[in-house]
Design brief:
By secondary structure, the chain is mainly alpha-helical. It has one domain. The chain is 75% helix and 0% strand. The protein has eleven helices and no strands. Helix 6 runs parallel beside helix 8 and helix 7 crosses helix 8. It is globular, with a radius of gyration of 18 Å.
Length: 273
């Protein structure tokens, strides 16, 4: 692997890890970063699938004791069974919508300008949601029932639009549906595991002809970079939400979206059409 390819893999891995669990859209950032780096060919798209696994593994590691308790108690412990049912219920809406409309969405919206527009629209949704008076019904993830999970799962469907943010849709949706900020954030983390595993496996199977043993080193660099940066980001976000809301991320989305649109329409950056 040459140094240029190594650097691209490292940068994209870090971008994936830092943005996957923040309400700023990892897919949107990867589309933009890959476009700037010239790594948006078919191999680049397979690479993005792989590095999402690294971010997902960061959640598994951070909550390894929780997942271990769930797995060991899945046949005997009521709380573990409820947790698994909630994850399954929350996972299904986006899975169904993705199978039905995923290919069409990717063909039309997986481009820099639509991503930038989604950044800005999503920002105003966050600002609106944060100005609302939140009535908390559910303080902890363990207090959720299947109806709460279904509502969060429906909110996750909006994340099929690149630039929306899977974590942003589920966390903000959770807040609007009565979850505490910590419960919404943690359930968003947990929901990422089946969602990213299923999406990654499906895309990898569809693009299996592009997988090459010679790319293992490239994938490893990106996966490790995504794991480390996602792990650090999750730790930071759990501390951040104790005393802050998500308004700062909304303003970041607006500024970043306007920069992309400005550079696109001025011709300063030759974004892909």
């Amino acid at each position: 692997m040459d140094s240029t390819l190594f650097l691209k893999a490292l940068i994209l891995g870090i971008v994936e890890g830092l943005t996957e669990f923040l309400p700023i859209s990892s897919t949107g950032h990867l589309i933009l970063a890959a476009d700037l780096l010239g790594f948006n060919d078919n191999k680049g798209k397979v690479f993005e699938i792989v590095i999402q696994t690294g971010a997902m593994l960061a959640i598994v590691w951070e909550y390894r004791q929780r997942f271990a308790r769930v797995l060991t108690g899945m046949f005997t412990d009521a709380a573990a069974q409820r947790f698994m049912v909630n994850l399954l219920v929350a996972f299904m809406p986006a899975a169904i919508m993705g199978l039905l409309f995923g290919s069409a969405i990717k063909a039309v919206l997986f481009k820099p300008v639509p991503v930038a527009i989604a950044f800005i629209v999503g920002a105003f949704v966050i600002l609106w949601a944060e100005k609302r008076q939140h009535r908390i019904r559910v303080t902890e993830v363990d207090d959720m029932n299947w109806r709460d999970a279904l509502l969060v799962g429906c909110a996750q469907c909006f994340a099929l639009i690149p630039g929306t943010s899977r974590s942003g849709a589920t966390i903000i949706g959770g807040l609007l549906f009565g979850l505490s900020r910590r419960a919404a954030t943690e359930f968003s983390f947990f929901l990422a595991v089946p969602t990213l595993v299923a999406a990654g496996a499906y895309d990898a199977w569809k693009n299996r002809a592009l997988l090459d043993v010679h790319d293992i080193g490239l994938f490893a660099v990106g996966l490790v970079a995504a794991f480390v940066s996602a792990f650090l980001c999750v730790r930071w976000l759990l501390r951040f939400i104790v005393a802050h809301d998500f308004t700062i991320f909304a303003w970041y989305r607006i500024v970043f979206g306007l920069i992309v649109l400005g550079t696109a329409y001025s011709g300063l950056v030759n974004w892909s059409a």
